[in-house]
């Protein structure tokens, strides 16, 4: 059965599932070159189908995530918003509604942001900017026409069902263990927290759904109050938190601690704010910025940990799975896995809304399977995280021949030992090879790589290409067999996707200090098994042979504010526009003049 999963909301994406196996999954932001792109994912769909050797007419069933998406966000894509625009949204849209009894129109406030070209649906079906039912009908009709499928072959699932089913179905031990799944995010279809239970591969059952799990909402508004983008930059608040002196963070922490509380599998309030932006804006006034980051992070960790503890008690299951945007808080995940009642923690890659398309497709595979139930139970859709396009040697060479700007560069077949030598001598290398990774983390195939030993490598890469905020850490790819040398992992958790954080060992602090958080010295490693990515494993092994270090600093291959490179042309363009000296493009090593 050929199933296409589609997410048209925030972080739009497509996923192709053929006979229970995930063939391709791509976020629309990569091919469109616009971070967190929303809307109908034309390009991601085309690329997924091409990777399966299929056309639109071959699809048996469509799986769509999220029932209710407001039309206004299709006309006004908020990924184009500046920080000031998000403040305008609060001051000119929410404040009058919440405090002044007026109802200004979103489309009027942001009329300068309306992009009619992004609205591909029939507007005659929509009554107003908030008409989610009309929007759903318009979306369904668009899907019917675009794919030539009748309505009974199209299924729309609610947002949290997609989050939970994704995490559950891609869990590597789903058939061996009972699992308790927690999904927490900004919100979708009126829910922002849900708890689920799955018994050894049997269909997932919802234990609880709530619209009061406002951990993500508080975190994103605090991020905006700190002068950063509310959807994209939450990780910067998390990265800032460890620098604060708890003495200065305590006052902020107490502001958060007197509001949202864990209440069984749900949440309640000690003090219920009328809203989650202006309330905290007023209460946090006059407090240090780093203390605010510390306070919200501390409270987030406490709330998530307590919630998980209650879920374990309720379900009797210590094998935990976390997903949704809040699960991208790797420091909170660390507090969760350190709980004594947590036997294991799995956080899948791309746990934000980009994976909703996969969750929807998996749910359809189970609901409409033509296979016996026991076969479905054995369906393990994700055997690899490398789910995007690849370019073979001939194609790469053909494209290279047609690219401009490479005059004077040296282009040679680069043996791994040569690349390892360059890395060992302090050079920074962009790597574009094999299929692209799904999710927001570069896992070697669209990565910038460097020797993780010198502390100053962070500054070197920032000045060369990343221009990251000075407080933000980089991460490392670590050979699986060296994991225990560098990080403390008493529960032997999987660290394949940079979704978990660990304390570092003395050897880790010596040999990969550039890939640790500079202040608390934690690591969010990408553990590389040979079978998962043989070529990348071989490169790190060559670096280990050269230097004795079984890890490489690994950060995503992109310029500041741009999505991760998607095509060889993107890679070369980024290489040429940055201070990078070397680019490994497939088997070709490209060096700038005088750098070979
Ligand atoms: Fe979500």
Characterize the structure shown:
The protein is α/β, with parallel strands linked by helices and 596 residues long. The chain has 3 domains: 2-77 and 115-162 and 356-377, ATPase, nucleotide binding domain (Nucleotidyltransferase, domain 5), CATH 3.30.420.40; 173-347, Nucleotidyltransferase, domain 5 (2-Layer Sandwich), CATH 3.30.420.40; 393-591, Alpha-Beta Complex (DHBP synthase). The strands form 5 sheets. It has an 8-stranded mixed sheet. Strands 3-2-1-4-5 form a 5-stranded mixed sheet, with helices on both faces. A 5-stranded mixed sheet has the order 8-7-6-11-12, with helices on both faces. Strand 9 and strand 10 (266-269) form a beta hairpin. The longest helix has 27 residues, at 289-315. The radius of gyration is 23 Å and the shape is globular. Fe (ii) ion binds next to helix 7 and strand 6.
The molecules bound to the chains, other than polymers, are:
fe (ii) ion
- The proportion of residues in beta strands is 15-25%
Distance between the termini: 50 Å
Secondary structure tally: strands: 23
* Coarse shape: globular
The CATH topology of the largest domain is DHBP synthase
Question: Which runs of at least 5 residues are low in confidence (pLDDT < 50)?
Answer: none
Number of helices: 22
Q: CATH first level of the largest domain: which class?
A: Alpha Beta
What is the typical, i.e. mean, pLDDT?
94
**CATH homologous superfamily (4th level) name of the largest domain:** Carbamoyltransferase, C-terminal domain
Residues in helices, as a percent range:
25-40%
Number of individual domains: 3
Major pleated sheet: 8 strands, mixed
């Amino acid at each position: 059965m050929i199933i296409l999963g589609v997410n048209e909301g925030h972080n739009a994406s497509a996923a192709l599932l053929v006979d229970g196996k995930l063939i391709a999954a791509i976020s629309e932001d990569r091919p469109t070159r616009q971070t967190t792109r929303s809307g109908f994912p034309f390009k991601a769909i085309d690329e997924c189908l091409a990777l399966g050797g299929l056309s639109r007419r071959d699809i048996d069933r469509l799986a769509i995530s999220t029932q209710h998406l407001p039309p206004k966000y299709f006309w006004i894509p908020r990924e184009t918003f500046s920080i000031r625009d998000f403040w305008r949204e609060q001051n000119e849209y929410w404040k009058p509604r919440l405090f002044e009894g007026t109802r200004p129109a979103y489309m009027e406030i942001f009329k300068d942001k309306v992009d009619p070209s992004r609205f591909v649906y029939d507007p005659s079906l929509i009554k107003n900017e908030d008409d989610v039912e009309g929007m759903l009908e318009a979306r369904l009709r668009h899907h019917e026409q675009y794919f030539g499928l009748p309505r009974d072959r199209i299924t729309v699932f609610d947002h949290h069902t997609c989050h939970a089913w994704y995490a559950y179905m891609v869990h590597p031990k789903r058939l061996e263990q009972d699992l308790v799944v927690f999904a927490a995010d900004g919100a979708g279809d009126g829910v922002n927290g849900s708890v689920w239970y799955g018994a050894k591969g049997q269909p997932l059952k919802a234990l609880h759904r709530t619209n009061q799990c406002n951990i993500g909402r508080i975190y994103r508004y605090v991020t905006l109050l700190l002068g950063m983008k509310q959807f994209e930059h939450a990780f910067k608040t998390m990265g800032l938190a460890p620098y604060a002196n708890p003495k200065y963070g305590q006052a902020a922490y107490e502001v958060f601690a007197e509001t949202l509380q864990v209440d069984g599998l749900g949440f309640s309030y000690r003090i219920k704010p009328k809203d989650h932006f202006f309330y905290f804006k007023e209460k946090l006034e006059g407090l240090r910025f780093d203390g605010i980051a510390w306070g919200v992070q501390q409270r987030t960790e406490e709330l998530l940990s307590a919630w998980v503890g209650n879920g374990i008690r309720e379900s009797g299951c210590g094998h935990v799975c976390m997903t949704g945007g809040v699960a991208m808080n790797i420091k909170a995940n660390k507090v969760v896995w350190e709980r004594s009642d947590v036997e294991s923690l799995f956080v899948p890659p791309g746990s934000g809304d980009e994976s909703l398309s996969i969750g929807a497709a998996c749910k359809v595979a189970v609901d409409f399977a033509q296979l016996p139930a026991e076969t479905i139970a054995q369906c393990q859709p994700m055997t690899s995280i490398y789910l995007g396009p690849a370019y073979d040697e001939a194609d790469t060479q053909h494209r290279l021949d047609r690219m401009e700007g490479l005059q004077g560069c040296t282009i040679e077949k680069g043996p791994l030992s040569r690349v390892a030598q360059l890395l060992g001598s302090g050079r920074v290398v962009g790597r574009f090879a094999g299929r692209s990774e799904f999710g927001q983390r570069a896992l070697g195939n669209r990565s910038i790589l460097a020797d993780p030993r010198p502390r100053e490598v962070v500054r070197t890469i920032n000045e060369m290409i990343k221009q990251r905020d000075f407080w933000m850490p980089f991460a490392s790819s670590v050979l699986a067999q060296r994991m225990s040398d560098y990080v403390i992992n008493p529960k032997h958790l999987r660290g394949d996707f940079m979704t978990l954080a660990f304390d570092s060992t003395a050897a880790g602090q010596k040999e990969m200090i550039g890939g640790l958080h500079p202040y608390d010295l934690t690591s969010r490693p990408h553990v590389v098994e040979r079978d998962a990515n043989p070529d990348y494993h071989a490169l790190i092994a060559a670096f280990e042979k050269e230097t004795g270090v079984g890890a490489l600093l690994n950060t995503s291959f992109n310029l500041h504010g741009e999505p991760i490179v998607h095509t060889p042309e993107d890679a070369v363009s980024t290489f040429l526009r940055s201070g990078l000296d070397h680019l490994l493009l497939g088997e070709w090593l490209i060096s700038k003049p005088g750098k070979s």
